[in-house]
Each structure stands twice: as structure tokens, then as C-alpha cells.
Here is the input.
Amino acid sequence: MRLTLSSERVLHAVMTNEDGQVLYKTVTPLFRLGTRTTTLYKVVPNPDPSDMQDYLEAIGEIEWHWFGSSIMRLHGREMRTGEFIPRHGVLGRKRTFIGSDGRSYRWDMKFRVVVLSTNDDSRKELARSHRRSLGIIGPKKEPSLDIHEDLMHMLDLVMLTFVYVEKLRMDKEERSRYHGGGGP
Here is the structure.
């Protein structure tokens, strides 16, 4: 499945499937004193069969903390990021977590994208983000996230962790721009 993002800024994006149907949306208040919180919404069918209008339901949050662990919430479960999705690697560019199926998964923050794979010897790639392409060389493309069908049973968790690691990757990329580096 490919989800197209309305913006590369994952904190303020609408995610649609190949048919253009909205599946998820993220909202983060722009200016707020103290802790900022990103809310993940999911489109759910209207329980009233006579009303064909779907609606957005808040299913998760990321409470961003400057110091210490941020807090993720998904379907009422609260997780501290330092424990649930800890950093690994020399530069801390890998984040691992245990999925709802009990398997270990790993997000790798690459130079311009994030990649999710199994955290085992096979390292099977299961999701990959893509940046916007303006079409100067090759076709024009919107930002997107390709997700393998093996993850459909825990798509909400994949989306919440994607928002988390992509924001971390973007922050590193931005810092490297201001400090004269070539990448995050």
C-alpha cells in the first residue's frame, strides 16, 4: 500500500491511499507554550448506515518533550519513547520497537528517508518513505510512505512510529543545514 502525504511536514499532514481516500491525518498546534502534542487521527466509518459521511477519530498522540522521553499514546496505551522505541547505533539513527505481533522492528533514519524493516537477520524491508520530487529529473511525485501488506494488522502503530521517527529525522536534517553539514 502506498500512502501519499499532503506535506513532507508529518506533523501537519493528511495521508491518502491510492484511491485518494483519506486514511490518517496529523495535527500539531503551531505555537504553544510548554509541551507540544501531535494528534494522529484515523478515518473511521460512520456507525449510522444512513449517513455515508466518515469521520476522524483521534487514535494516538505524541507528546514531544525537549528533555527526557517523549510520550506516545495509541488506543489508550501510554509508552515512553526511551523504553518503547529506544535509539540504537553510534549516532542514534536507528529506533527499534516490538510490534503488536510480538516481533521486533527497526526504523532506520537515512539521509532523506526512513525505512522500517524486521529487526532480525533477514532485515526484510517493510516500509519506506519517499520525498517529494518536483519532476525536473524523472516524474513529479508527492511525498509518500510505501507499506508492505505484512504490516496491515498493526497499521496504526506503524503510522504513529513513522510520524515519530520522521520528525526526528527532519530535525536532524534541519540542524545539519544550519551547522554547515551535508546531512543529518
Observations:
- The mean pLDDT is 91.
